[in-house]
Design a protein that fits this description.
The chain is 67% helix and 0% strand. By secondary structure, the protein is mainly α. The model has no long low-confidence stretch (mean pLDDT 97).
Length: 67
C-alpha cells in the first residue's frame, strides 16, 4: 500500500492525526513521497521520535490553520 493510499483511507475514515502526520512528512519535511511504500511511515512512528514528532505536528497544525 502506498502513502497515497494510506492518506486516502485516512480521509475516508476521518483519521485526522494520520492525515496531518502524512502531510507533514510529505509537504513540510519532504522526507517521503505519496508514491512511496507505506512502510516508510513506520520509521517516523518509532517511540524514540514520539515526543518531538508531536511537537512538530502541533506547530505544523497551527501553521496550516493560520494559512
Amino acid at each position: 500500500m502506498t502513502v497515497r493510499e494510506i492518506y486516502s483511507e485516512a480521509l475516508l475514515n476521518d483519521l485526522y492525526g494520520l492525515q496531518i502526520f502524512i502531510r507533514f512528512l510529505v509537504y513540510e519535511k519532504g522526507v517521503i513521497k505519496l508514491e512511496d511504500d507505506g512502510e516508510k511511515l513506520t520509521f517516523y512512528m518509532q517511540d524514540q521520535f514520539q515526543t518531538k514528532m508531536n511537537e512538530y505536528l502541533i506547530e505544523y497544525e497551527e501553521r496550516e490553520k493560520n494559512g
